[in-house]
Design brief:
- This protein is an alpha+beta fold.
- It has twelve helices and eight strands.
- The chain has helices spanning 5-34, 37-44, 56-69, 115-125, 129-155, 172-199, 203-210, 216-223, 239-249, 306-312, 314-318, 324-351, and strands at residues 75-77, 86-89, 95-98, 104-108, 254-259, 268-273, 284-288, 295-299.
- Helix 5 crosses helix 6.
- The relative contact order is 0.15.
- The model has no long low-confidence stretch (mean pLDDT 92).
Length: 363
Amino acid sequence: MQRGVMGWLDLIHRWTGGVLGLVLAILGLTGAILVHEGSWLGWTLPHAADVRVADPNVIAATTAKLMAAEPKAQGITYASDGLGLHQVRMARGAGAYADQAGNVVTRWDSQWSRPEHWLFDLHHHLFTGDFGETIIGIAGLAGILFVITGSILWWRTRKTFKFRLWPKRLSRPMIVMQHRDLGVVMAPLLLLSAVTGTMMIFKPFAQLITMPFSSPSADAAAMKPPKVKSGPLAAHPDWRAIIAASYTRFPDAQIRILSLPRKAGDPILVRMKRAGEWLPNGRSNIWFDAADGHMLGSIDALALPKGAQVFNGAYPLHAAKVGGLLYRLVMTCSGLAMLLLGSLAVWSFWFKRPKPKKAVRKA
């Protein structure tokens, strides 16, 4: 039987949804939960709702206290406006939350002890590392394809449009109608989620999106860490001097992440978020010699080419780290719509497919 263009689009749309719909449903549900991570941590952990302390001297003293108390620490993610706790990072998913005076409020031995960590791993890696990340990237590309092909297919039936959050009945025709009409309403948000998510996974796709703003080669060169060589990590680094130098380099910034060297010759890395950055942990980086603490180099995120700045905006848009509560609720709707569309697509494709008609024998 010959198929027209619309027939092939319908076939591609249905089969891709039937195969990858469950992955998209998982991404939608976990994403809808994770955009509110700061809120539910604030309800469940002491001091999580504390106001962020901005005094560099207090931050330096707390850093020294935590590093002395946690010899296995690999670094610190500092308290933010959304979460008033410092997170001490350790090997193999272990870590601790501490208040801004440096007192540990809870600790864990693996990511499985903290729901925000295993949810993040499920959303980003499907619990399978790089392989899962690749599958998610493919699902993201499929999501973009769904929005485009679904919108084209909807146009033929636009006169029957009727918005429903849930199918009238769980029959295949009703699921298809609800899927089609809900999908076209949510198409802009679904496209935003799919594009920004895929940008973070597939570098060539990100370059395609940012190419109109600046050349990929210029972006890569500007974002490349400087080639610096550090001495061995001192037994007691001068954290006060390192943090003071960080604020001297970027006076308008918040300190966000401190990372210790992973191997000999690596420097200490400080990540800061300048006032004009959207990325919650910033991309303004400073490297310090691990032996004596002198500054080796830095990158100012606001001086990067436009394409690199667009790329840095993908995560905060995807994870609703800008725009406040209203935008978080908008992206929650996007995640729940993805959950509904993906799960019902799998259900209707595999369990509600029309039975093939039996051939009628002629007498």
